[in-house]
Amino acid sequence: MTQPFLPGQMMDYPLTIDRILEHANQLYSSKRIITKQADGSFHQYTYADLYKRVKRLGNVLHRLGVRPGDRVATFSWNNYQHLELYYGIPGAGAVCHTLNIRLSADQLIYIINHAEDKLIFVDASLVPMLEAIADKIKEVKNFIILNAPTGMKTKLPYVLNYEELLMGTSEEFEWLSTDESMAMGLCYTSGTTGHPKGVLYSHRSMFLHTYGINLANCFGFVSSDVVMPVVPQFHAQAWGLPYACAMVGADIVMPAMHLAAAPLADTIEKMHVSIAAGVPTLWTGLYQELKANPRDLSKLRTLIVGGSAMPRSLIEAFEKELNVKVVHAWGMTEMSPVGTVSNLQDKHLALSNEEKWDIKAMQGYPVSGVEIRIVDEEGLILPWDGKSVGELQVRGPWVVKRYFKQDPDTVADNFTKDGWFKTGDVASVSSDGYMKITDRTKDLIKSGGEWISSVELENSLVAHPKVREAAVIAVPDEKWGERPLAIVIHASPDHPADRVELMDHLAKKFAKIWLPGKFVFVTEIPKTSVGKIDKKVLRQRYKEGTLV
Ligand code: AMP
């Protein structure tokens, strides 16, 4: 018989998201939330204002019939109203379902119906996208408009005005998020194959994720920070950053629809942003903008980059030329989303800058709370030796256990028998725990029996001064099975790169078999709804013969 354990004697204190807001209201009530409005001016209020409006929102939701467990959707830019929904919906016991505003009509219809969204909060500027599908999402009871201009007309049925609803209620509201295991957020993956899949976060998972990313060896926000999440609020809860800011009292700057490089640079300068976060393509544009039109970046201490691999050359450019530190992180919607981060440690201090950038270009070590391992095709665990490459698997308190409404027969596709989530990424891990992504399983190129990493080729191509962006995909080849094809945007049309010089550049680093047989020069590379290179579209274009 096993001896019964001695239970600890600490309080059952639920880790619910409303605790974060209560704490921010008590301690950081005067810290700011700044939103760039449609007309370019800035709206500014405090955490105390946020708190009061979230309480009103709780009453509004209850009055509209929202009950614990109901899914309530948002369809908006990053703005203060969206932040209110981040707290108000979970605070009312419901699930904040952030809809991706860049999805196609068909994907939106599928997701809204699959989630059974009861209400949709929609920014006035995005209403036409929902008008076009309103007759296919009949279960939605009300559309509530944020930022509605006076006299706004819409074809949407059952429309309500957000501000009017808030004005008509009281600031007294008792949180209905009573249990940390309650669902609080829902986000669908970008769905590169098949239908998008829903990930249902709990209060507990999001709370622990917030602690995790606020560790000093992860993002480590402090109250003097001014944080700008450029990553959309619909992309994995803006990487959890809005909750992390409230936990420590950092100011938040929301860029709304002003996402082009020049307005972003203006906002960083004007609002003294100290930390900005987003996908690498954003920072490519920002770097070029800053080189062409320098701004005062003295307050910008860190760029947090994730979502796809940050090229080493861009890390070097920001750190060396612009004196802005880059923190490269890896994660997934399925991981709330942060999994690993590539900060330097004290043992690296004596290294040369070149060596430091090599480390920073890796996806980094797991944040405390997340465990990682790599396995081969038979499921055998591979060593952390920096050489062995296998599928990356993860587990931890903020990692998905199963997808929302997942068919039980398909669970084994995504999860191992011993409880690990199969990420679909291919990686190696160094002996001291720094993980390096080689590719997505489906993007690897198999040529003559050898695996070629599209990510490594892309990173090397964008390091060439004449290349602005690059993508590498596998194309069928009679002799080799597959060969890499490089798709390249010139840095400047006046000094175009040519195939020979790019081949010479790659040949310095890679074996001959890795060198792309063919280059296609384009003016635009398609991106997914969350700003990553869309290889599915590139492969399709190649198949149709339109990639020339
Ligand atoms: P999403 O759920 O849309 O954020 O996509 C997650 C996927 O993005 C991961 O499985 C990776 O393939 C990719 N990804 C995220 N961060 C990185 C990174 N830092 N480097 C390379 N790939 C990344």
Fold and architecture overview:
The protein is an alpha/beta fold and 548 residues long. Among the domains are: 369-440, Luciferase, Domain 3 (Luciferase, domain 3), CATH 2.30.38; 445-544, 2-Layer Sandwich (GMP Synthetase, Chain A, domain 3), CATH 3.30.300.30. 28% of the residues lie in helices and 24% in strands. It contains 16 helices and 25 strands. The chain has a nine-stranded mixed sheet, with helices on both faces. Strands 7-6-5-3-4-8-9 form a seven-stranded mixed sheet, sandwiched between helices. It has a four-stranded antiparallel sheet with strand order 17-18-19-20. Strand 14 (325-331) and strand 15 form a beta hairpin. Helix 1 (17-27) packs across helix 8 (241-248), helix 2 crosses helix 3 and helix 9 (261-270) crosses helix 10. The termini are far apart. The mean pLDDT is 95. The structure holds adenosine monophosphate (AMP). Adenosine monophosphate (AMP) is lined by residues 189-190, 236, 306-309, 328, 330-333, 337, 363, 423, 425, 437, 440, 530.
How is this structure best summarized?
With 548 residues, the protein is of the alpha/beta class. It has 16 helices and 25 strands.
